[in-house]
Amino acid sequence: MDITQFVVSSRDKALLYGDYSTYRTQLAHRLLNIRKRLRVATRHRGKYNHNANGIKAEQVAEDVSYVRLQLLTAERAFAQAMAMKAAHASNKKGITGHTRSHIVSRLDKAAKYAAHLSDVLQDEASGASDGDRLEARAYAALLRGAAAFEKQAWELCLANYAAVWAIYSALSSATPTRADIFRDLLTDTLEPSLRYAAYQLKMPRSKPIPIIAREALASAKNNVAATPDPAVLVSSVNKIDPSILQPKTAATADGSESLESAAPGTVGGVVASTRTLTWRSREVKIEDATIASAWAALDLAKARLEAQLVAGGARMAPKDKAAAYDDVLTVSQDAVDATKAAIDDLRNEGIPQSDPNMQLLYIARTAANYEMISDRIGRNRVLTGPHDGAVVQAGPSVTKASRNGGKKSKAQAAARPEAPGRLLARLKEKVVLYDGTLQSLETVKELPGVAADVELSEQLDATAKYFVALKALAIARSHSLTGNAANALALVKHAHEQVTEAAPGLRATDTGDQKKDSPLRNISVSSADVQFLQDLLQAELQRARALVDIEKQQPLSGAAAKAGALALSETLGEYPQGGAVDLENIVTYPPRIQAMPIKPIFLDIAWNYIDYPSKTAGGAAAPAAAKAVSSSGGQTAAPAASPATPPPAQEQPAKRGWFGFKR
């Protein structure tokens, strides 16, 4: 029957050279011709037969022209409504109440004819296929949705347009030959109308159209003209393509896994349009589908990460474990972007911050940022090593066999320890990671609502002290490697004080939510980690004190004492203490590169601009000297001409003209 193609082609041909008034005139002539062919036309001055438009299933099975009769009748009423709407669209007052009611009545009449056609085709005696029945339903719902649009009945409009969208989306994937027609209708007509109706119902703009259509069909009862039961329509669409009303999330775009198999309590392959988010004992219902999808994808990514870390176990290097966090960080960033976009949309609509929906989005944004920063801190903790880097890990030992290309030798058993330079470099990398963690904690404190939460602020302060203690321990170990025992003792004591202050706060906030055997790391520090670091720092403090005492009790050797004293050549401006001069320390030996005082460079530059008599001897100074003698003696003395001096050259007349030619 090709109902959709017949309607679309008829409209395109008429609107190509005219408007809806032209389309209505063409439909009137076509209706008269088809009625004459079917012998249901009203005779001249005859009584109109109202039952002429009432077709039956048996008639449709005999002749498809009865379907055309119903379509042309519905299209004529639709064209009349659109012509009136276009005629009054340019008025300054817009469409008045009487005109609007007339337009709605014409659209209702068109919808009744289309609904009657849909009911007739549902009968098996009509011989219609499943695709024809769905197209008839979609056409009836399209006209009913247009009438509801003019009535400004947005719930009814959304339900009907959602039914049309679901049917045409399913048919576009099932019939590739006519997919272009269905896609044009979806893009040009249905999706903008769906968006506008959803906007009037105050739905978030970021909600995907499949979610809007599914919710509209689920909430619709008997208001959809396409079918008396929306559940039957949903089942018909799912038979053709189950993915139309069940969009996949970004985490399951490949279709390899579903959320039902990954996390219990979620819908398989589908993210629910609403989701309850718990943040600091406060439950927030997220109605934005994009945010809910991002949170579900984050849960799925964390489940995958935990499974990967459990499978790898202790064989995975810290860098490999940290690389596994990349997917979680990407998905958490998507959640942050989704919340920000939703807040920006509400701001653009002029909704104040005191609005409940805006407050819920602010809570969701704080929770999303907290999760993202928590995952970032967990990645840094994995990179530092076991127990957050408190334990020193020995690097790979270097043997003679490894330097000889892996050949076995007797010296292979004697492995060299790691060089101090490499140890210092690894400690420096840890300090950089601790600085990044502390900076992330400062960012958490600046999130909206965190400063007002006293318990959370105290927990963050205690966590910051924990990482400050780890940073001080790493720096203390670097001082121990360089032989500064006193500096190492001071830093270890500072670290011990910090972790002692942080221990009560972290133990009080340790709720045990995190699994004991879970390898995932985040911003929360367990009481076991705090206790381990406290015991370690207590032992390191005793060790550092012992090293300082041993260093104080040992007298300085002569070489060590001389190494700290300056040479006599460096202290010539000072009187030696006690009048005794150390003749064994006259100069620094072996010599080393040192800075030495030199003449500033500006004196050399100034020399070029100073005119001294010595620079012009026999030249410019001679006339000046002659003038001085004549003025003092009162006599003029002619200088003797030197035979070696050449006579002065006579001045040549200046040439005129261009380049001295022809003059």
List keywords for this structure.
SRP68_N_sf, mainly alpha, single chain, two-stranded antiparallel ribbon, RNA-binding
What is the topological layout?
Layout: H1 3-17, H2 20-38, H3 57-62, H4 65-87, H5 97-121, H6 130-151, H7 154-174, H8 179-200, H9 209-219, H10 230-240, H11 259-262, E1 275-278, E2 283-286, H12 289-312, H13 318-323, H14 326-348, H15 356-384, H16 400-403, H17 420-445, H18 454-482, H19 485-508, H20 527-553, H21 558-564, H22 601-607, H23 621-633
Antiparallel strand pairs: 1-2
What does this structure look like?
By secondary structure, this protein is an all-alpha fold. Helices cover 60% and strands 1% of the residues. The protein folds into three domains: 3-240, Hyaluronidase domain-like, CATH 1.10.3450.40; 248-384; 386-393 and 419-553, no CATH class. A two-stranded antiparallel sheet has the order 1-2. The chain has 23 helices and two strands.
- Counting DSSP E segments of at least 2 residues, the number of strands comes to 2
Return the CATH class of the largest domain.
Answer: Mainly Alpha
**Which CATH architecture of the largest domain would you pick?**
Orthogonal Bundle
Which parts are unreliable, with pLDDT below 50 for 5 consecutive residues or more? 248-273, 398-404, 409-414, 624-645
Q: Give the neighbour order of strands across the main sheet.
A: 1-2
Number of DSSP helices? 23
Distance between the termini: 105 Å
Portion in helices: 55-70%
Radius of gyration: 46 Å
Average residue-wise pLDDT = 77
Major β-sheet annotation:
2 strands, antiparallel
Alpha-beta content class? mainly alpha
Provide the β-strand percentage band.
under 5%
Q: Enter the CATH topology name of the largest domain.
A: Hyaluronidase domain-like
